[in-house]
Give the backbone structure.
Amino acid sequence: MEQKSFHFNEKKRVVVKIGSSSLNYEETGSLNFTKLEHLVGELCNLRNRGIDVCLVSSGAIAVGRQSLGLQQRPKDISTKQACAAVGQARLMMIYQKLFAEYNQVAGQILMTKNTMINPVSRENARNTFEELFRLGAIPIVNENDTVSTYEMQFGDNDTLSAIVASLVGADLLILLSDIDGLFTDDPRRNPEAKLIEVVEKMDAEIYGMAKTSTGSDVGTGGMATKLTAAKIATLSGADMIIANGKDVCILHHIFDDSFTGTIFASDKKDTFRIEDFILETIG
Ligand code: GLU
């Protein structure tokens, strides 16, 4: 299947996920403001094309760790939560300023697993997303790290972004990662590894290609979480793309059907229920 046959320029609702390793300088763990600004510009352009846009942004813990002057990524849950409390507020302050410069309005949605499992909370969250889209605003989502304890955590934003795509009925999910896409083997260790351009079926061979390391110490998701995301997104009826977030211009290249990355083709199953999947798989 060629990229052209996907007609990404006809998509109506897109969820874009960017990870901490794409937003922060690897050497220092500090935010890359130039990249953030470009990302916001790209998202505003998608919005200006008439597409509903939702951003799932990591970075709360990394930004909080910087603000609080911690040298290492925190390991214990209470320090992570304290970092997230500081970092999430700072991150949103930066996003609000940047989106306002492009005359767009952003809103914050923080979710826990409970939000998705409890039918009332799930419906409320869905309604809030719908209303934000109707009003032309751009929801910025993260896990509510300050309150989500171990047993109530999604744990990574790859999965969270797919859950959001499923909840809002997005037709495209884009994971901006620190790797070009799904490879036949880990390209950092095996130079013979080949990029897979299109995945039409999530079968055992594809799952076998998952490697659990991202090679960065600021993010949490590896290829295994991206494949879980692909399963959720495609069964919910969205195409999913893994692309390299080192240059966020890739976002408009995707909508011009000319980019490097892996496309997972939508494989909608009407019987798929996101809440059941969460309970059975992430539960
Ligand atoms: N929610 C975490 C944060 O904002 C990130 C989780 C992830 O990157 O997968 O720091």
Q: What stands out?
A: The longest strand covers residues 13-18. The chain has one domain: 3-282. The pocket of glutamic acid is lined by residues 19-20, 58-62, 142-143, 145, 156-157, 219-221 (CB under 6 Å). The beta strands are 13-18, 52-57, 106-111, 138-143, 172-177, 198-199, 239-244, 262-264.
